[in-house]
Give the backbone structure.
Amino acid sequence: MNNKEWPLWEVFIRSRQGLDHKHVGSLHAVDAEMAIENARDVYTRRMEGVSIWVVESKSIHASNPDDASSLYDPANDKAYRHPTFYELPDELRHM
Amino acid sequence: MGVHELENLFQQKVDHEIKIEPKDWMPEKYRKTLVRQISQHAHSEIVGMLPEGNWITRAPSLRRKATLLAKVQDEAGHGLYLYSAAETLGISRDEMLNQLHTGTAKYSSIFNYPTLSWADIGAIGWLVDGAAIMNQVPLCRSSYGPYARAMVRICKEESFHQRQGFEILLSLSKGTPAQHKMAQDSLNRWWWPSVMMFGPKDDESPNSVDSMKWKIKRFTNDELRQKFVDICAEQVKILGLQLPDNDLKWNDERGHYDFGAINWDEFWQVVKGNGPCNKQRLDARNKAHNEGAWVREAAIAHAEKKKQRTAKAAA
């Protein structure tokens, strides 16, 4: 008997034309085709989407939360990357 | 960093309402508590399909049948959202199913009661789903991200479940004397088990303290139970039916309804597996799982064959 578990897939759904695909959850399926069919039944029973992406979970590489400070903190002291950093005269409107 | 320091950092995050995500450090007991709670919750959704499925072929009209089908399909979906949330904590789907099928994992005791009449579908919607919603709305703010997100989706869908149940009871209550009686009989049987759905009394609920501290839970069992009784005691008047509790009485001083004593012996008996349908439910789950084994195996074999065929064609 084959006791193998079906692979895990991550599901991304575009809720409306013009918006990004957004992660909604995961499910098990034997291949991409079945993953899309199952995603349709599990995640779009009430017209939540117009397009589905599925990616096998093992193909996703994530950053390590322990690295968060070395990855993101350096951006913290670079206020000059934001428009409000610059002091401009009040007469100058709409810039 | 030592465990103590990590625990402090973890608790600080929880206190500041920063969600915990799968790859973040978490105390082992937090992980275990969540696996237990989320998988039990998933099992409840799956087993919860059984008492209702019983009535799909006997629904009194096409409208009711379509509604019931949609509701049962939702319950399957809710089970799947929750299984996938639990899997982010490192337990496999097969492991969870195995725990359900061997009886090591629990599911909500309410589903060990039989659905004897069509009115029971109404009572389940109004009371059982009503109690579930009461429990689940605060879980949308649970500290564990994947659980909270699954709960948001579930709560959105659950609302129609309760409304359709109320509608069924209201139609029956306003119908013929026999239909009215059927609705009342159903409330008589489902009321107390629904009140028990909130779990043991606070002082007998050993996991509650940690769950509150970790913000997995936001309200205690007794707080939620009281809220449920207060709401139902009012809504039942609209139904023109009675809750089977002679001690149910508004208490001006407390600002709440007082209600009668709960039969905790019955509660623990059903939890321990001696409810009216425990065996029947587990047998049905095991039968479905075992008889579906060949489908799961064939689907894998087919996918592997297809993969080889495409590889050959490409070579």
Notes: Chain B is about 70% helix and 0% strand. Chain B touches chain A at residues 21, 23-25, 70, 73-74, 77, 80-81, 84-85, 87, 92-94, 146, 149-150, 153, 157, 293, 296-297, 299-303, 306-307 (CB under 8 Å). The first helix of chain B runs from residue 3 to 15.
